[in-house]
Amino acid sequence: MKRILPILLALACLLPARAQTPLRIAAAADLLPVLPPLLVQFQKKTGIHAEATYKASAMLTTQILNGAPFDVFLAADTGYPQRLLDAGAADSTSPSGVAPVIYAKGALVLWTRNDSGLPPPSLALLRDPRLQRLAIANPDRAPYGKAAVAALQKAGLYESLKPRLVIAEDIAQTAQFVDSGNAQAGLISMTSALTPRLQADGRFFVIPRDLYPPLNQGAVIVRRSTQQAAARRFVDFLLSPHVQSELAAAGLAPRP
What we know:
Layout lengths: L3 H11 L8 E6 L6 H12 L3 E6 L1 H9 L6 E3 L4 H8 L3 E2 L9 E6 L1 E6 L20 E4 L5 H12 L3 H4 L3 E4 L2 H10 L4 E5 H4 L2 H6 E5 L8 E8 L5 H12 L1 H9 L7
Parallel strand pairs: 1-2, 1-3, 7-8, 7-9
Antiparallel strand pairs: 3-11, 4-11, 5-11, 6-9, 6-10
Helix pairs in contact: 3-4
């Protein structure tokens, strides 16, 4: 046994160190085209590995309230983070002293495939009887879906288009529906419209911002997180000038 013990200790030294628990980020679906390269940058800058789960903001809110082990919540609005704050499930202390922290501002666009056979996307297209299937995100779960309904209502088009709406689970799925041809057009996020695939496959029209409430996207730190310091570093990283400029290039205006 005395001879075996040193061998076992030597072998133990050769085993890889136990991996650090990654920083877990609950991210709104509009961030799917944007966040992955930023997480790589964050790890290079800080040594902190972060992983994101992308879903509709309402679904992520429910999961966090039910105990899902997230550290940071990046929503597509400020309403869902506020629900967590009101429930005591998020940290009301933020790097800026205000919570939720607004990290960016989203934009809604009308997108069509180049081969759709429809006129170029515009508000006039929404009145065109040839438009029979318009994809939007679920307004009960996704802030972009709520914004889409608000824009259609303010433009006086919601009632006529309601029977023709194709409802997606979240804004990422909305883009998939219209890109795959399951819908002829879609009210999607600018972040999706600016991806190389959708830029190659189609064209978009920016919905006037006065047709829907601002999509101020909010972040909070989950109160039960065991990685509070790392979570704060990530929020600081998002608010840094360099990252803000990258978000803007990807379709998210700098925070107001």
